[in-house]
Amino acid sequence: QKEVEQDPGPLSVPEGAIVSLNCTYSNSAFQYFMWYRQYSRKGPELLMYTYSSGNKEDGRFTAQVDKSSKYISLFIRDSQPSDSATYLCATDSGAGSYQLTFGKGTKLSVIP
Amino acid sequence: DVKVTQSSRYLVKRTGEKVFLECVQDMDHENMFWYRQDPGLGLRLIYFSYDVKMKEKGDIPEGYSVSREKKERFSLILESASTNQTSMYLCASSSWTGLYEQYFGPGTRLTVT
After folding, report:
1. Surface of A (22-81) touching B: CB under 8 A
2. d(Cα A33, Cα A101) in Å, to the nearest integer?
3. How far apart are CA B3 and CA B68, in angstroms?
4. What does the alpha-carbon distance between residue B101 and residue A84 come to, in Å, rounded to a whole number?
5. What does the DSSP 8-state code read for residue A15?
6. pLDDT of chain A along its 112 residues, tens only?
7. Nearest chain A residue (CA) to B37
8. CA nearest B78: which of B2, B11, B25, B30?
9. What pLDDT does residue B1 have?
10. Which residues contact A3 (CB under 8 A, 6 or more apart)?
11. Nearest alpha carbon to residue B3 among B26, B21, B29, B22
12. Separation in Å, CA of B92 to nearest CA in chain A
């Protein structure tokens, strides 16, 4: 079974807020976890890439994986209007497959 | 930086036409992918290729075919376009060493009338 669940939002926050975006997945065999950002009418852009559990930080962005609860999160600190986009989580599909399993995306608006 | 380009940003075709969508990547990636993206359905994999002349079906290959004659180029073909193939089409690529780090092109918005 390959399934990733993501709340579609929309999520609207004031500039400077801390944003938390979340996904759950069903298969404990998934090992690789990605976050993509997609601006309107553009292709997805890879933001963060993590392997197994733990945290990874890149500037204002932190990706967190909790394999025990099958929960992945993206935190955005000091959010900016330029962060307004749709955020997609993705996992590998297990068993050596080339495929990624994507969530359907959460639309975020950061209001100035 | 990885660059993935797609031949058209917007395309309008008539029902029954044969449609070619082209994708080129400049990072010498082995793997290339074609997705379609529809509201409420998310990204769905149509086909992928892990080497020249090699292809594998994704989740929704019906009505599509692909061609990979050169490593940097991956083409998606709609043999006889239908209105339910109106969608955003996205190409992506990845390397063997970064298999799950897929880099996407800007997309082609195809409308079939």
Report:
1. 32, 34, 36, 41-46, 49
2. 10
3. 18
4. 22
5. T
6. 458 999 888 999 999 999 999 999 988 888 899 999 999 989 999 999 888 888 999 999 999 999 999 999 999 999 999 999 999 999 987 766 778 889 999 999 999 9
7. A104
8. B11
9. 66
10. A25, A26, A27, A101
11. B26
12. 9
Given the DSSP bridges, would you call strands A106-111 and A11-14 parallel, antiparallel or unpaired? parallel
* Interchain CB distance below 8 Å, A43 and B42: no
B47 vs chain A: nearest CA distance in angstroms? 10
Please tell me the distance in Å from A46's CA to the nearest CA on chain B.
Answer: 7
Which residues in chain B come in under a pLDDT of 50?
Answer: none
Is A45's CB within 8 Å of B104's CB? yes
Q: Confirm if B101 and B42 have CB atoms less than 8 A apart.
A: no
Task: Report pLDDT for B104.
Answer: 95
Burial classification of residue B37, based on how many CB atoms lie within 10 Å of its CB (0-12 exposed, 13-18 middle, 19 or more buried): buried
Minimum distance, in Å, between the CA of residue B46 and any CA atom of chain A: 11
Q: How many CB pairs under 8 A join A and B?
A: 52
How buried is residue A93: exposed, middle or buried, by Cβ count under 10 Å (0-12/13-18/19+)? buried
Residue B99 to residue A41, Cβ atoms within 8 A = no
- Across chain A, the runs of DSSP E, i.e. the strands, are 4-6, 11-14, 19-25, 32-38, 45-51, 54-58, 61-66, 71-76, 85-92, 100-102, 106-111
Closest residue in A to B38 (Cα) is: A104
